[in-house]
Specification:
The structure is a single chain. The protein has about 200 residues and is of the alpha/beta class. It has a single domain, classed as TIM Barrel (Alpha-Beta Barrel), CATH 3.20.20.70. The protein is built from eight helices and nine strands. Helix 5 packs parallel to helix 6. It is globular, with a radius of gyration of 16 Å.
Length: about 200
């Protein structure tokens, strides 16, 4: 709750609330996600980060949390988007694309036909233990820029963003928005000093 308030105080437009993941930082309980989501004042949005890959499981996870938006951090089973929208018509869907190589461009454009927005990150869902975010690693921004230019929906940029590189990231990629995690944390906790430096470097 304190971290949510700190992020909002610095100007965050949305909060990412991390549900169960195979790996990575920031995981909290569904009960706490719902508590934070209920406490956030408008116009700040809340994003449920879910690793579920079927419509049924995503909808079930959503009902436990009640956020504004669902961030799908893994590739969905075919047909899932339509089923989720039928069950949750007022909830926005953001599909994460892990930019590992050139294939991410085609994957992003396909997902952009179904999702409300895309988020480009630096995970690796092909590992035996999937890495679906929070890596602190930067991916190839030239691929991200191509996706931004071609995408039919808004594109967020994530992956290794910190006060020292965010200005260049904005200039090179021109994303709709930024998603930050490890670059503003110290000892796995949100660091107000880093957060302040990030927003200043980003021009806010």
């Amino acid at each position: 709750m304190e971290e949510a308030s700190e992020a909002i105080r610095h100007g965050a437009a949305a909060l990412g609330l991390v549900g169960p993941m195979p790996s990575g930082p920031g995981i909290i309980s569904d009960e706490l996600i719902q508590k934070i989501a209920r406490s956030v004042p408008p116009p700040v949005s809340t994003f449920l980060l879910t690793s579920e890959t079927t419509a049924e499981d995503v909808v079930l996870h959503y009902h436990k949390t009640q956020t504004h938006t669902i961030q799908l951090v893994d590739k969905m089973v075919p047909g899932s988007y339509a089923s989720i929208r039928q069950s949750l018509p007022g909830v926005k869907l953001v599909q994460v694309i892990h930019v590992m190589d050139e294939s991410a461009v085609a994957e992003a454009l396909e997902a952009g036909e179904k999702a409300d927005a895309l988020l480009l990150d630096s995970g690796n869902p092909k590992l035996s233990v999937k890495v679906l975010g929070g890596t602190g690693n930067v991916h190839d921004w030239s691929l991200s820029r191509r996706i931004v230019e071609l995408s039919p929906v808004p594109v967020f940029l994530a992956g290794g963003l910190h006060p020292g590189n965010v200005a260049r990231a904005i200039e090179e990629v021109q994303p709709f928005g930024l998603d930050l995690c490890s670059g503003v944390r110290t000892d796995r906790k949100l660091d107000p000093a880093k957060l302040d430096a990030f927003f200043k470097a980003a021009g806010y």
